[in-house]
Amino acid sequence: MVFTPSLRLLAVSLVALLDPVSAIWPAPQSFTKGNSSLYLHQNLKITYNGEPVRLSTSSSSFSFPHPPNNVCGPVGPGYEGLFTKTPAQQQLAYTADYPASSLSSKEIVTAGVSRALGSIFSKNFVPWMLQPRGKLSQFEPDVYKGQKWIKSLEIVQTTKDANTTIKPALAGEVSEEYNLTLSAEGDAKLTADSYIGVLHGLETFTQLFFQHSTGTSWYTPYAPVEIKDKPKFPHRGILLDVARTFMPVKNILRTIDGMAASKLNRLHVHVTDSQSWPLQIISMPEVAEKGAYHPTQTYSPADIENIQKYGALRGVQVYFEIDMPGHIGSVSLSHPDIIVAYNEWPYQWYCAEPPCGAFKLNDTKVDDFLGKLWDDLLPRVTPYSAYFHTGGDELNRNDSMLDEGIKSNDTEVLRPLLQKFVDKQHERIRKQGLTPLTWEEIPLEWNVDVGKDVVVQTWLGPDSVKNLTSKGHKVIDSNYNFWYLDCGRGQWLNFDNAAYAAFSPFLDWCNPYKGWRHVYSHDPVANLTEEEAKLVLGGEVAVWAESIDPITLDTIIWPRASVAGEVLWSGRIDPATGQNRTQLDAAPRLSELRERLVARGVQSSSVYMTWCTQDPTGKSCEYPLV
Amino acid sequence: MVFTPSLRLLAVSLVALLDPVSAIWPAPQSFTKGNSSLYLHQNLKITYNGEPVRLSTSSSSFSFPHPPNNVCGPVGPGYEGLFTKTPAQQQLAYTADYPASSLSSKEIVTAGVSRALGSIFSKNFVPWMLQPRGKLSQFEPDVYKGQKWIKSLEIVQTTKDANTTIKPALAGEVSEEYNLTLSAEGDAKLTADSYIGVLHGLETFTQLFFQHSTGTSWYTPYAPVEIKDKPKFPHRGILLDVARTFMPVKNILRTIDGMAASKLNRLHVHVTDSQSWPLQIISMPEVAEKGAYHPTQTYSPADIENIQKYGALRGVQVYFEIDMPGHIGSVSLSHPDIIVAYNEWPYQWYCAEPPCGAFKLNDTKVDDFLGKLWDDLLPRVTPYSAYFHTGGDELNRNDSMLDEGIKSNDTEVLRPLLQKFVDKQHERIRKQGLTPLTWEEIPLEWNVDVGKDVVVQTWLGPDSVKNLTSKGHKVIDSNYNFWYLDCGRGQWLNFDNAAYAAFSPFLDWCNPYKGWRHVYSHDPVANLTEEEAKLVLGGEVAVWAESIDPITLDTIIWPRASVAGEVLWSGRIDPATGQNRTQLDAAPRLSELRERLVARGVQSSSVYMTWCTQDPTGKSCEYPLV
């Protein structure tokens, strides 16, 4: 063993001086910054396509934010510009005041500007934990001399929106690109093709600013700034299971807050499953009355619209999955005649987890039920969704053994029935103007033909992605070995003492836990040809809910969803180096994003301990190869 | 494969009717209950040793609880009887009003009664999630007819407390036993030897009651009740690391709330480490000034006393660890001359994780520093602690290679120096009336002799426990394979791309995550002789803080600390069966405890999804052996 005195501390300090904080998450495609400080003033002049943005309904001037006195929790509702309510209340107010179709881009952008200024002035943080211990003053500008101010923010949207502004788009249909510049003289300009690009640019703008330790100033140390940015993948999402464990509306809205901050743009709500059916269906109230865990654990039509509209205003398209023909047992509680194998035992013979339950595959009553369901539900979601997900994962052949009309588990018998079932439902979904999504088992395990318009969601890994894209299918990737965020926290099943020896230490099926570094290392297009890669629309992290609930939700999702978000927005490869992005580059920026999420009320887990975050190079906590 | 129709649903329902909810966590040593319902009334007559317990400072009658209107979060501060403030504020008020030595048992018990009634009336829950879907009405009594009321709660403490009521006790010195009876006629009686026994009994009392779905009634469905209870192990604790990540006082107090609810009685605060020194030392302010992450991340002497007193009032003894001679690098920031190898690199040569840093082992300046430290700190903690932990884990021999006074990593050279160091510090700690604790490496790895009064904390497993107890040492067990609660959530170190292949998927050293079922399966006295087992005082779950912080703290600790708590209070073996306690028995009771923790403001993770909790037998989510 050799004992060499190390120059490491000195080296760390030098690097720290060169690049104190790298700022933006996800990394922009192109980003240059300087080292001049500029302050943001409450009288900032903001224009949208040449017209002044008026931030208060009662006054045309932007008034200084005063957080309410009775703030709850670590960070209160804070200043929202147009709104003085919590995000949930704000959304409800918006819903009441403005039907979706009447919202203009100007109104959406105005709300976005208001949120951005609220994030900067009222939901910000003093970054002492991102700077070397006791050295914050070397990062912060001197607030007492020579303050230079940002004078204006000019927002230009280069294409006009459609008549119905909130038009749910398919992947790639709407440009999300934006350019953001901030001159050393204090002129900021944000240009984008669409209002969604403007919203992304505003999020980036907020990430330039910190609260000063003196408390009443907000500054960026990075002027001049020049950012050109656009996403690598058009579909960047979270799958949220609200059927195994119900998630209240406010938790879903807070999830959307975190998504907007991370430039994630798709919230896939897995809204029903065999365990519960929380979705109120107006024409069939019995389904949720019997199928929900409790009357308080349901989503009313107004809840659904509020969630979708809240997302749409933040650039997040919310779409729903009703998983079928498996994973639908809860319908048995109201319509037992159309379900087989509900809660059959031992469950392993009939499904992946209790309770089992699947639609009968050859029964017109199933078709009648679904016709009624689609007619009721689909027109309500189409104003905000371009997609509808019909599930299709983990259908167990044995279910049909118990189906009096089939009594077979022979794939040759079942496949044509499943083909007919899928064709019928997808056609109905298309008729409502929606594009179907399906899990990979439908085309890959069952060899069911689905149209090329259908987006196939994979979870079983890169072979599935390759297989599907080589056949010309559009794919979104949710590789369970990397992007299943609920994994690795232990079994949720009970084991009798007789099973002890075989199952100790009671790991879950997708153990281990996917730490953020592992999440970050996944590239959905690795080992694909260029043609195949073009068909990968993006991916979704999955948040299944056997073992999580509203209390743990935020800590499970964040910051890991943002980590996948950077892979999907910026790409796994850093264009500057041509190499995979490194943990060393990511950790300090992610630590900063995490503080911003927390300041905005999203209860994100930490990236690593303060000892590590206080080294902006990340090197103090790098594993040294010896 | 055989397809047999199953009688399981019927069987489940029958069992559910027989034993709808088992209630108490941890399981009492003896517990019989009936099926008569009794309501609790605000005019309940409560006596302590024959005298009425007066619950309001302004009035002698117990007034109906009105939760404040501007409640924050899912559950507000609620009713606290004597107090109208949050638990933290309440403790501060108590500290200001009552010096510890003047607190009588009556005052402590009165506060305990007040908290118990607050838990029942204001921090309770409607147990629909613990009953079959839609069947809550079969569990709840009919609130509109024939209400029977609990008339009185008679509390009897059979031994008189010492003059100084809060006298910190060694393991086993104070009886924690209690008996609780509730007659079908509504007479409740709680008997205990000590006020700590009374506090435990009051916690059990709260667990008998639910809120009625009609909202304004609170009932127990279990009368008549007879409970005889006492702990198996006298030391039932949590080790909380507040040095790697600072935990604010309020989070520590909330942790104590959860401990009291679970009958855990020792909070071991690992208050310093190489990463930071948050502990203010009056005579050496520079240590925390330089050693803390930030001026806001320190504990003042008042903070320390508040934390200890808050615990003492709830039956939780708070004691501190200053880890040495390793794990002390942060002292280098104020006293560089007494530390070697601070932040040396590559860290693997000098310590277990960055930054390294150890006391010089043969330097009188270290002794001077520690003399000053002990004189300052120890008199401040002795009113509430019987113990002080001097650490001693993971000392790396190579540190002394860099020590100019030693320049050796030879154990034969280092062992006598370490012996002298440990002897000196332990003797100083004994002189202040405290009993030293040490990590197992001191006696086992270094063969340093420690007195038989010293309690040795093990973390490396059953061989260490056997080894130490066979030599006559008292032991507390923190087996890292079972009871390290922060494990299994991924690496916190950054890995360069060059290290990618070797370290993907970036698991931490003590992977996997210890799910509650695994935590529950650990018996600290397994495979010991009777004599050896007697020396095991109990155990502690460990909450190290490289990867957690105030946001994740509760979800990491709870409910798993309560799970270890049942092993330590009730024993791994169920005396009724002579077998290990089962997950099937535990899961429904733990699910209930979890709801109580959440209702009291402790953000516990869930036990499993609602589908599972809604079967009070736990069988719907049992893994069937096929």
Automatic annotation (TrEMBL), chains A, B:
The signal sequence is 1-23
Could you say which enzyme class this protein belongs to? hydrolase
Identify the domain of life.
Eukaryota
Q: Give GO terms: molecular function aspect only.
A: beta-N-acetylglucosaminidase activity
Per its record, the protein catalyses: Hydrolysis of terminal non-reducing N-acetyl-D-hexosamine residues in N-acetyl-beta-D-hexosaminides
Q: What does UniProt list as catalytic?
A: 394 (proton donor)
- Gene3D superfamilies given in the database record: Chitobiase/beta-hexosaminidase domain 2-like (3.30.379.10), Glycosidases (3.20.20.80)
Q: List residues of the Glycoside hydrolase family 20 catalytic domain.
A: 233-571
List, alphabetically, the GO terms of the cellular component aspect.
Answer: membrane
Q: Which SUPFAM superfamilies match?
A: (Trans)glycosidases, beta-N-acetylhexosaminidase-like domain
Q: Could you tell me which residue ranges the Beta-hexosaminidase eukaryotic type N-terminal domain spans?
A: 24-208
Entry's CDD domains? GH20_HexA_HexB-like (cd06562)
Q: Which UniProt keywords apply?
A: Glycoprotein, Glycosidase, Hydrolase, Signal
A Pfam family reported for this protein in Swiss-Prot or TrEMBL: Glycohydro_20b2
EC code: 3.2.1.52
Q: Which GO terms describe its biological process?
A: carbohydrate metabolic process; glycosaminoglycan metabolic process
Which protein family is named in the record?
A: Belongs to the glycosyl hydrolase 20 family.
**What name has this protein been given in UniProt?**
Beta-hexosaminidase
Q: Which organism is it from?
A: Pseudoneurospora amorphoporcata
**Biological classification of the source:** Eukaryota, Fungi, Dikarya, Ascomycota, Pezizomycotina
